[in-house]
Write a structure and sequence with these properties.
The protein is mainly alpha-helical. It contains 10 helices and no strands. It has one domain. The protein is globular, with a radius of gyration of 14 Å.
């Protein structure tokens, strides 16, 4: 499945809207009214409450994601862990004016790597006892700018 279809599936935005957003630069996305409205609708408190369950799921999968980053994309010594993945998502939602910092932290991550890993990073959250749809939407929305054209 193409990344735009994956993002549409998890954000519940029309594919045409995802395509429009992906055609923008990262800065334009972070200033886009539709994008910001979607981010504001995320329930950061609920995501924080369900953070332990998300960490438990990611603890099972992050080692293989790091292996893919190392072997296929030459990114060794990744700092990604179940702890950082969950905390960064919740942390950036608590301070939405710093959302663009997420892209800055991931500058060395090739867009192809994000496009390859994100579908699995979203689907494994199906195993959460509760909150999976909320986490999937949040992760898809926060990843979207890193998949933009520029």
């Amino acid at each position: 499945m193409a990344i735009n279809s994956t993002l549409a599936q998890y954000t519940k935005l029309p594919k045409a809207e995802i395509d429009r957003l992906l055609a923008l630069s990262q800065d334009e996305i972070y200033n886009d009214a539709t994008y910001l409205n979607q981010v504001r609708q995320l329930d950061a408190e609920y995501l924080y409450d369900t953070l332990p369950a998300a960490r438990d799921i990611y603890a099972q999968y992050v080692p293989q994601y790091n292996q893919i980053l190392s072997e296929r994309f030459g990114l060794h010594n990744s700092v990604m862990s179940a702890f950082t993945l969950g905390n960064w998502l919740v942390g950036f939602l608590q301070f939405p004016t710093t959302l663009d910092g997420l892209s800055k932290f991931h500058k060395r991550l090739p867009k192809d790597a994000m496009a390859e890993l994100l579908p699995d990073m979203l689907s494994v959250l199906d195993d959460m006892p509760q909150g999976s749809a909320d986490w999937q939407k949040a992760l898809a929305l926060l990843s979207l700018p890193m998949l933009s054209q520029s």
